[in-house]
């Protein structure tokens, strides 16, 4: 006992590990992290086959990492300690100037980009009568390069976007969003703590789409708005930076006559309860649903006896963008290929459209595996 007591720190250390283990195993598994805004890994089922094929171990490691007790508090401590050490990056997110955060994005999946471009071309060849327009939206670091830490080595999205456009079917109208967004960079067009553009940024994207068609956009002064404070987005969720500057989120009270989400009628364009939660951006169009239909009487180009329609095939950037299109079309159909409940061929057989807009953020276009559904 005297020999043992000569090393009290060692015994305290083992006592801490044992106590922490007991505390850890006594906690219930969480299914969703509100802080990180993602589903958490659950305990995988052990089988001899999965063990010998090395499928069990990686899943169990992910499960342990996601369910580690006091995980959120450890993330906060890690962020604080790295900040004190002067680090400018945490969990793949860089800290820029004026509170802006940027994803450290040094390489793009060129094979996936080529494959997705081919999927778009095959879609156009399958439906030659469709009037298709495509826009790839840049990430904020392309608009604010002066705010990005020096030497970051970010992917040149402008050059790769032009490469994608040059390989598209010649019938496709393309939208180069970078220049019009850079013209508005002094305004609040991208969130600081989130990867999306703001509603104002989406409005300027909509205005650019209108100008490409020779139309005038609706004036924002004609639409009432509400500003929601204390928005901390996806970049914050990955870093939990102790000194993060909260964003504000604005939504516009655009009048509608009907909103259908996967066949269910909703009360308006927004899930207002989401504005009270961490993932406030999910309020737009009730999240990333399969098929959303917006009907209104806003159309500034209304033709008597005709119902004009647009189909927007989009990622989450399109959720704050699409409602503005009610001022150019009687009906706006919004499709998210990640959740679409029917085959695209069946959907297009039942519906006709004046225009089709394929709208993706660059990072999503370069990684999404769901664009293959365009062909089915």
What keywords describe this structure?
globular; alpha/beta; 376 residues; 14 helices; 15 strands; 17% strand
Output the strand order for the largest sheet: 7-6-15-13-14-12-10-11
Task: Bin the helical content.
Answer: 25-40%
Give the DSSP E fraction (strand runs of 2 or more residues): 15-25%
**Parts with pLDDT < 50 across at least 5 consecutive residues:** none
Give the C-alpha Rg: 24 Å
Question: What is the average per-residue confidence, as pLDDT, rounded to a whole number?
Answer: 90
**Main sheet: strands, sense, barrel:** 8 strands, mixed
Basic shape = globular
Number of helices: 14
Termini, distance in Å? 74 Å
What class do helices, strands and sheet pairing give?
A: alpha/beta
Count of all domains: 2
Order of helices and strands: HHEEHHHEEEHEHHEHHEHEEEEEHEHEH
β-strand number: 15
Description:
With 376 residues, the protein is of the alpha/beta class. The protein folds into two domains: 25-69, no CATH class; 101-375, no CATH class. The chain has 14 helices and 15 strands. It has helices spanning 2-5, 8-25, 48-52, 56-67, 71-84, 110-126, 140-143, 157-166, 178-183, 199-213, 234-239, 317-321, 344-350, 362-365; strands spanning 32-33, 38-39, 89-90, 93-95, 101-103, 132-137, 173-176, 225-231, 247-252, 258-261, 264-266, 291-295, 309-314, 331-335, 355-361. Strands 7-6-15-13-14-12-10-11 form an eight-stranded mixed sheet, sandwiched between helices. The longest helix has 18 residues, at 8-25. The relative contact order is 0.12. The mean pLDDT is 90.
């Amino acid at each position: 006992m005297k020999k043992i007591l000569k090393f009290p720190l060692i015994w305290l250390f083992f006592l801490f590990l044992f106590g922490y283990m007991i505390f850890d195993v006594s906690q219930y598994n969480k299914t969703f992290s509100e802080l990180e805004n993602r589903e958490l890994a659950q305990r995988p089922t052990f089988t001899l086959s999965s063990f010998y094929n090395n499928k069990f171990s990686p899943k169990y490691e992910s499960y342990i990492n996601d369910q580690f007790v006091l995980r959120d508090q450890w993330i906060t401590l890690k962020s604080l300690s790295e900040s004190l050490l002067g680090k400018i990056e945490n969990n793949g997110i860089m800290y820029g100037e004026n509170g802006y955060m940027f994803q450290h994005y040094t390489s793009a999946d060129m094979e996936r980009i080529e494959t997705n471009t081919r999927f778009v071309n095959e879609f156009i060849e399958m439906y030659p009568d469709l009037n298709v327009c495509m826009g790839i939206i840049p990430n904020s670091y392309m608009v604010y390069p002066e705010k990005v830490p020096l030497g970051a080595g970010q992917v040149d999205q402008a050059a790769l976007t032009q490469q994608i456009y040059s390989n598209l079917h010649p019938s496709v109208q393309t939208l180069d969003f970078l220049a019009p967004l850079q013209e508005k960079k002094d305004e609040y067009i991208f969130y600081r703590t989130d990867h999306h553009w703001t509603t104002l940024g989406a409005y300027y994207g909509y205005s650019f789409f209108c100008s490409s068609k020779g139309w005038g956009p609706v004036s924002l002064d004609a639409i009432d708005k509400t500003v929601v404070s204390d928005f901390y987005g996806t970049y914050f969720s990955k870093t939990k930076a102790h000194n993060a500057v909260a964003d504000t989120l604005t939504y516009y009270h655009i009048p509608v006559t009907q909103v259908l989400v996967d066949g269910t009628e909703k009360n308006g364009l927004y899930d207002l309860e989401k504005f009270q939660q961490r993932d406030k951006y999910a309020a737009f169009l009730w999240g990333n649903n399969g098929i959303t239909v917006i009907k209104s009487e806003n159309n500034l180009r209304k033709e008597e006896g005709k119902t004009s329609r647009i189909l927007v095939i989009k990622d989450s950037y399109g959720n704050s963008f699409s409602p503005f299109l009610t001022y150019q079309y009687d009906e706006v159909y919004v499709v998210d290929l990640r959740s679409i409940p029917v085959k695209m061929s069946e959907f297009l057989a039942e519906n006709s459209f004046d225009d089709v807009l394929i709208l993706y953020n660059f990072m999503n276009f370069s990684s999404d595996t769901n664009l293959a559904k365009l062909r089915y």
